[in-house]
Amino acid sequence: MSLTERVLRPLLSSSGARPALTHYDDAEGSRIELSVVTLANWAAKTANWLVEEFDVEPGDAVAVDLPAHWQTAGVLFGAWWCGAHVVTDPAGAAVTFVTPPHAAEAAATGPTAVVALDPLGRGLSSTPPDGALDYLSEARTCGDDFAPLLPVPGTTPALLGTSIDELLALARQRATALGVGEGDRVLSTREWTLPDGAVDALLAPVVAGAHVVQVTHAEPAKVEAHRDAERVTVTLP
Asked: Cα(87)–Cα(91) distance, rounded to whole angstroms?
């Protein structure tokens, strides 16, 4: 069973309407909240798109070069849902996810998905370069649930060579080490660098059943206001 299936299905069956991720961008002045259901829907759309557009199968490499953002969460959980191996090196990857400023460079080396990072989920404002696709505009038309065509064994690599079983165990260990438990509201200003940042600030809290409050382009005064407004119980170092 895929990593996403093992992480999100129990949450969907018990508390699908509760918040899973709240993303603040202090530079944009935006706040976007995703419930467990909404996060799962974006992950499913991404997984369906990867399979339909790029024929991604369990173990295939998908490169991700994205900042901490609610859309990045959809990309990561979507890649893991179809059994993709998330990597940082685009060489040999079925597709590389990048932000608009890196689209042309990435497209010159292989299939590229450009993630607009628009706060409201709108696609690109201009046509992507040759060899690149607008992730948000393309994936939003795909299905809201995902059924793998092939089994995804726990030994399948999930993140930089770490298997699904190993990554899930690591996420649980990190949640315990960080003091994150079920029902916590976890504030983070960390980047989701691979692997450590994404594991500590995204995967570990979600695995623990916590609510992630992610702040990008953090401004100290605003962070304090976010902490109060979101009733934060754990702040990641």
From this structure: 10
